[in-house]
């Protein structure tokens, strides 16, 4: 497959995953099935924008806290309805789980998305007593990591999964015509270049079969923040999140264990 630049090749995922086209319809089917039977509140507003809505899935009985999952899609694709099934692991462990949508590029810049997710975190914290954990995948992993930075909301733990934490290489990709990153914006929104807030726990997670650029990004954040990171053997960029639906998975233990 031809790519316009080496950066485009480095950050391509589906082109290097067998059966990649099957994942999106599978995710959406699982999400719809989960939403049909789950207990919760759908479409809660956390801001005035059309996409500033979240779904809050609830366990039986009082929640032990709330986990917020931020979806990926290179800040340009998907919405909360595509990922509902990934709340299953948290709910089964007695936690509430919030899944927000957020305004996508090109309508919003990444800095604005960071502020939106911070607003979503504050909204769910006001509704659900207890610790707040933010997990996210890919671009959502970036936004999850940003919640641990000094300018973020109060959270107990973040779990960035296959995150993008140094955005400067993305300026060389074709998608930057949509993201509109320049050097200043890329640096300002790169968690690996920012300081985490004291007391916030972080655990970075990445698939062992990810593209080298994503393994590099994950290690970069773990080293910059001196936090643990896990390379999930045999997992690629599209199935590394599967453990979120399993309350007994090592990924869910990284998210909620000990809280």
Short description:
32% of the residues lie in helices and 16% in strands. It is built from nine helices and nine strands.
Please tell me about this protein's structure.
The chain is of the alpha/beta class. It has a single domain (6-256), classed as Alpha/Beta hydrolase fold, catalytic domain (Rossmann fold, 3-Layer(aba) Sandwich). Helices cover 32% and strands 16% of the residues. The protein contains 9 helices and 9 strands. It has helices at residues 6-10, 23-37, 88-92, 110-127, 139-146, 176-179, 183-188, 212-225, 250-256; strands at residues 40-45, 53-57, 66-70, 96-100, 132-137, 157-161, 201-202, 204-207, 229-232. The strands form 2 sheets. It has a 7-stranded mixed β-sheet, sandwiched between helices. Strands 8-9 form a two-stranded parallel ribbon. Strand 3, helix 3 and strand 4 (96-100) form a beta-alpha-beta unit. It is globular, with a radius of gyration of 17 Å. The mean pLDDT is 98. Residues 67-176 form the Alpha/beta hydrolase fold-3 domain. Pfam families: Abhydrolase_3. GO terms for molecular function: hydrolase activity. This is Alpha/beta hydrolase. InterPro entries: AB_hydrolase_3, AB_hydrolase_fold, GDXG_lipolytic_enzyme.
